[in-house]
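User: Small ask, check this?
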Amino acid sequence: MEKTLIVVTGPTAVGKTRYAIELAQQYGCDIINADSRQIFRHIPICTAAPTAQEQTLVRHHFVEFRELDEYYSAAQFEADVMALLPSLWERGDHVVMCGGSMMYVDAGCNGIDDIPDISPTLRAQVLDEYNATGLEPLLAELERLDPAYYAQVDRCNPRRVIHAIEVCRQTGVPYSTLRTGRKKQRDFKIVKIGLNMERSRLFDRINRRVDLMMEQGLVEEARSVYHLRHLNSLNTVGMKEMFAHFDGTMDLITARERIKKNTRVYAKKQLTWLARDPEIEWKEM
C-alpha cells in the first residue's frame, strides 16, 4: 500500500485533536503535531496541547519538546518531519499530521524555501531591537531593504517581520528573492482533511474553551512564565492578554473576553488561509 500522510487541519477549537486520535487509532499509526505553539513546554493550557491522557491513546511527536527560549521555525519543522517519517513508515503505511499552524502544515506537505540559518548573535540583536523600540523601526528597515515583501507581509505579525529582517541582514539580499514558492516532491501520498463547522457553533466552542482554560489554571500558567514575556514563543493569544492583566492595563474579565475575541479573529484567518488550498477535502463537524 502507498505510504500516506493524512493531514488533519482546520480552525482552532474545531475538534482536530480528537478527530486525529480517532483516525490514528483506526490506522494504528502515530500523530505528528503541526501546531507551532504546542511544541513549547510549560504552556499546555494556553496552547490546548494534547493532554497526557490523549497522548497515552496515540503516540504524539513534537508536543512540548522545546523550551520557551529555544528558536524553532517552519524550516526546522520540515527537517524534523522528514527525518522522522522513515522510521514511522517502517511501522505502517499511514501517519497522521494534526495542526492548524498553516506555515507548519505547508512546510510538512510542500516543503519550504532553503533559507540560510540565522546566526544566534544576529537573532539576539534583532530581538533586542524589537524589545527596545518595538516593531515600527523594523518595518521601516524592511520597507527599505525589501519593499516587495514589505508590501505583502502581515505588519501586525512581529515574527514574520523579524524573520525577514534577519534574513536580509544575514544574506545581504532581499528576503523576497529567496522565496521561490516551489513545491517539493514528496515520496509519499498526502491526503488533507479540513474540519469546519457552522460559524456560530465554532465561535461558541471557542468561547467555552477559553472559559475552560481559565478554570484549568490559565492565570497561574501565565504568571509562571511572566518573567519570560519578551520571548517570541509567548507572543500568542492567551499569554498576551494575561500579561496585560498582570501589567495592570486590563482587568481579568476584560482579558478573558479579549482572549475569546482574538481567538475568533485567529480562527477566521485560519479559514481564509485554508480556503486557498484546493487539495483540502472539507468535513463538517
